[in-house]
């Protein structure tokens, strides 16, 4: 070997390794500290874009903040009884962590969007897909029954199969569906394998080949919306 | 040591840069780095970002290792190489998350997996450990560019034939192919087609470059 001529003592090897580790740690920590604000900003902007997308406002990274301020008129946090609780910022609440808590202890964020045809109530969703988490936002009309729009995202569902939940063909049919039946019972939305019956107000088509993601999405809708049930019933028309 | 001084862009140095693009291409000739070539080439943009990231990591890592080559104890040299690569990859990942968030989401775990890309460790061990920084830099850029070139070619065809777009611009729709009954090939989106395209590139390359054809 061309380079292995020199003999190195054990002390040299240990010192070399130690110094290397310290230098690397310093460089990486400094980089992480400097870049962190920018990264958090990107995550926040993406969250705003997803919220806006559920009330069918398309935005770009550049105008997300502006449009968010324009369309989202109110945010607050409620508990599972549907009572408002003070002292929390709805935007920074992590729905994933909340869904792990028992129902009574959850802090549930609510975003209120204002469009030309009225107020829209937006709630966050978080659940499990096939390979990883799936999440999203669901916007209800002012009656707190009828879905106005949805936005779903995922981390690593299969492209072309489960990943289709973030496509518009899957999301659009949710609009106009109802999460309560006529008698006021909570039904959530079923994601029907083999296709929903035409005109069924509580079901949409599942994704062929994406059954587990579809079922995961169905339970995500059920679990998350169930936490808000009291609130919807209390405030709904 | 001064006797072997040569100009920065001597023929020998330029060969370090150009050889990996064709005769010694890491993907089509050495068949390394295939995993990421399949995973992130669905669209052109992530392919280009991945290519740039690998060029940055490999050229800088090569220079660092080359500068340290006389100080690195041979017994822990692989660990040292890994630490250098891993740190650079983490830096690239952080920078992408800060400045190119959308792309970094598409590349997701594959930025981190640059660490395990055998092209990089291969070049550090085979070249940077025994050469001066400048040739090591050229070797790094050359090999990463040879890798990136294939990514970009594959990414271009997969995006064009799979989604009918180039850089997200709907080319095929604009020239009206869909109106005469053309449909996108969904298989192009899936990893197997990347392998087939790489295979076709290897075929075309060997047809043109007969040096590469093995005898027997």
Q: Note the run of SSEs of chain B as H and E.
A: HHHHHHHHHH
Task: Output the structural class of chain A.
Answer: alpha+beta
- Give, in spatial order, the strands making up the sheet with the most strands of chain A: 2-1-3-4-5-6
Which whole number gives the mean pLDDT of chain A?
A: 89
Spans where pLDDT lies below 50 across 5 or more residues of chain A: none
Summarize this, please?
Chain A is α+β, with helices and mostly antiparallel strands.
Description:
The complex is a heterodimer of chains A (237) and B (216). Chain A is of the alpha+beta class. Chain A has one domain (46-235). Chain A has helices at 10-54, 64-71, 95-100, 168-171, 211-227, 229-235, and strands at 72-78, 84-85, 108-115, 118-128, 133-140, 147-154, 190-192, 203-205. In chain A, the strands form 2 sheets. A 6-stranded antiparallel β-sheet of chain A has the order 2-1-3-4-5-6. A two-stranded parallel ribbon of chain A has the order 7-8. With 216 residues, chain B is mostly helical. Chain B has one domain (27-208). In chain B, 62% of the residues lie in helices and 0% in strands. Chain B has helices spanning 11-18, 34-39, 44-68, 77-99, 101-107, 109-112, 118-126, 133-163, 171-174, 191-208. Chain B is globular. The N and C termini of chain B lie far apart (43 Å).
């Amino acid at each position: 070997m061309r380079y292995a001529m020199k003999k190195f003592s054990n002390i040299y090897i240990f010192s070399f390794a130690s110094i290397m580790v310290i230098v690397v740690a310093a460089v990486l920590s400094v980089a992480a500290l400097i870049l962190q604000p920018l990264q958090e900003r990107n995550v926040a902007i993406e969250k705003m874009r997803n919220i806006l997308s559920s009330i069918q406002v398309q935005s770009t990274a550049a105008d997300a903040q502006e449009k968010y301020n324009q369309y989202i008129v109110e945010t607050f946090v409620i508990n599972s009884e549907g009572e408002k609780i003070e002292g929390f910022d709805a935007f920074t609440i992590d729905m994933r962590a909340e869904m792990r808590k028992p129902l009574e202890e959850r802090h549930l964020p609510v975003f209120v969007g204002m469009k030309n045809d009225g107020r829209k109530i937006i709630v966050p969703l978080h659940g499990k897909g096939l390979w990883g988490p799936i999440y999203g936002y669901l916007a209800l009309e002012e009656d707190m029954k009828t879905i106005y729009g949805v936005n779903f995202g995922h981390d690593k569902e299969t492209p072309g199969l489960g990943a289709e939940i973030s496509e518009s063909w899957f999301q659009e049919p949710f609009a106009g569906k109802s999460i309560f039946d006529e008698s006021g019972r909570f039904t959530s939305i079923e994601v029907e394998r083999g296709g929903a019956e035409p005109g069924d107000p509580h079901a949409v088509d599942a994704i062929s080949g994406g059954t587990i993601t579809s079922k995961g999405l169905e339970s995500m809708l059920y679990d998350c919306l169930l936490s808000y049930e009291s609130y919807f019933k209390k405030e709904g028309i | 040591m001064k006797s072997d001084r040569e100009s920065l862009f001597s023929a020998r140095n330029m060969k370090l840069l150009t050889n990996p693009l064709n005769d010694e291409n890491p993907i089509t000739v050495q068949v390394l780095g295939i995993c990421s070539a399949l995973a992130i080439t669905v669209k052109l943009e992530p392919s280009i970002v991945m290519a740039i990231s690998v060029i940055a990591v490999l050229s800088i890592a090569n220079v660092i290792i080359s500068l340290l080559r006389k100080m690195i104890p041979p017994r822990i040299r692989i660990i040292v190489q890994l630490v250098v690569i891993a740190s650079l990859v983490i830096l690239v990942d952080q920078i992408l998350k800060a400045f190119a968030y959308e792309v970094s989401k598409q590349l997701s775990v594959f930025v981190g997996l640059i660490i395990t890309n055998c092209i990089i460790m291969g070049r550090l061990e085979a070249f940077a450990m025994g050469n001066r920084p400048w040739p090591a830099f050229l070797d790094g850029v050359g090999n990463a560019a040879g890798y990136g070139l294939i990514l970009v070619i594959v990414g271009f065809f997969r995006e064009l034939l799979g989604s009918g777009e180039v850089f997200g611009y709907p080319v095929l729709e604009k020239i009206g192919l869909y109106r005469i009954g053309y449909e996108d090939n969904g298989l192009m989106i899936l990893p197997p087609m990347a392998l087939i395209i790489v295979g076709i590139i290897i075929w075309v390359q060997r047809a043109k470059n007969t040096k590469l054809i093995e005898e027997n």
